[in-house]
Specification:
The chain is mainly β. It is built from two helices and ten strands, in the order βββαβββαββββ. The chain starts with a strand and ends in a 5-residue tail after the last strand.
């Protein structure tokens, strides 16, 4: 994808993305205490941006949420890492649509490097729901 940059040419980046709507017959409801787990690796040290888009249950677009994870938090370059990211830690890109993902339906999940291509590979994405007793 071409990543726009102010006053500069766009940068070609490679993103790993999964459409939840196309891979499931049932909506996936996001809960406040849920977490996204990503497993992957990079060939060069680089901050990875993790994100997801949402919609109201069976309705209109409700916004995107993103979180940047620095390379030192991912582990050694070239080795497989796992990051567990609480949904509450993601920032809303359109807070006027939804300030929080709690109660929204998950559309898609993605990961990309935003400065340069770092050989990002994603091998596993999982949504862990909050357990309520």
């Amino acid at each position: 994808m071409l990543w726009p940059r102010p006053n500069r040419d766009p940068l070609l980046l490679h993103a790993a993305a999964l459409s939840v709507l196309r891979s499931s017959d049932h909506p996936v409801l996001l809960q406040g205490g849920s977490k996204l787990v990503f497993r992957g690796r990079t060939e060069r040290p680089q901050t990875v941006r993790f994100g997801f888009s949402t919609q109201k249950m069976r309705g209109a677009f409700a916004g995107k949420f993103e979180m940047d994870v620095r390379p030192e938090s991912l582990g050694p370059v070239g080795q497989t890492w796992t990051v567990t990211l609480p949904l509450a830690g993601f920032r809303a890109l359109q807070p006027q649509l939804s300030a929080s993902p709690d109660g929204l339906e998950l559309n898609d999940v993605y990961a990309l490097t935003i400065v340069e291509d770092a050989g990002l590979e994603i091998s596993h994405i999982e949504l862990q729901s909050e357990t309520r007793e």
